[in-house]
Amino acid sequence: MSFNKDIPYDTLPDLPPKANLETADIFKLTIQANKLLAELKGYCQTLPNPNLLLNTIILQESKESSAIENIVTTQDELYKASLNVTDRIKNPAAKEVIQYREAMYWGLEQIKKTELITTNLLVGIMQKLRDTDDNIRKNPGTKLANPSTQAVVYTPPEGDTIIRQKLAELEKFINDDTYSDLDPLIKMALIHYQFEAIHPFSDGNGRTGRILNVLYLINKNLLSLPVLYLSRYIIQNKPDYYKLLREVTEQNNWDAWVKFVLQGVGETAAMTLSKINAILNLKNESIPLIKDALKASYSKELVDLLYSYPYIKTAILEANNIAKRQTAADYLKKIEKTGLLHSVKLGKEVYYINHNLMKVLSE
User: Fold this and answer.
1) 108 and 189 both lie in a single domain
2) Enclosing domain of residue 31
């Protein structure tokens, strides 16, 4: 049966598709993207404390990915919220972005344990993203519309049984490499399309799909940490992203879609690499100033923290066993005098803003 945008696409074909995915153009882009990803992975493995750096990169990815869903939060709101580990985050948009970060971390822990990407993992990621107990979409009537014209562009498969069958087939394709000898990056492009086409949840499909991309790369050992900043590329090419997804469905145009994803992985790996370099350069330039300001109290761990949080407060130093509250406040005041930080009082809290780091992250 041919595709009809107005009726549920219950006949969505399983992967792999009947298409030539080994053209010269695809091969060239695959080599380039793999090379840049390997460089990014290798670079992350040389960092003394990659998890601290991960915090800054993943916050940006969370922000960009949420922005695709029009969950828009300012840098200020986001970074303040990221420090409120124990407080309830009041800004709804900032809360959703922080939940994205937590869902990513949770997913990472799960695949480390099981080494598998499963339907249950995807459901868990969606639940963490949305802070909900919702599961697979059961209610009929889901239709995807053009946001400008409200015209229906796609009706995903319908009903718990069919959706679960489609996800079970996708799960097999993800985890069983005997299905095809395709390069993992080409497989990632296919998996991303298929997940979005199944559209298994009532909300949160886009964000879950973007987390799935990065977790798949880690699962296939192409990355060691979820530092790929892919959502920025999708935002910059949003009309093409949706157009090419539709062309796979309507015209079986896998070639253009796969090339788009490979191009995105390559560009994003290069951009993430340059962002990490810029953060490390800033950090290294600040060390002599901080040593001079703190004298014998200087610690490498404190400098690491200052370049892991664009906004910082004394409680973060306390939580990381750098110093007790009063001493921590004294350290931050001394560092502020060097010009590296700028304090601002918001309510009862004093935040110290690392403007140079903010600038690198927002470029």
Assistant:
1) yes
2) 24-275
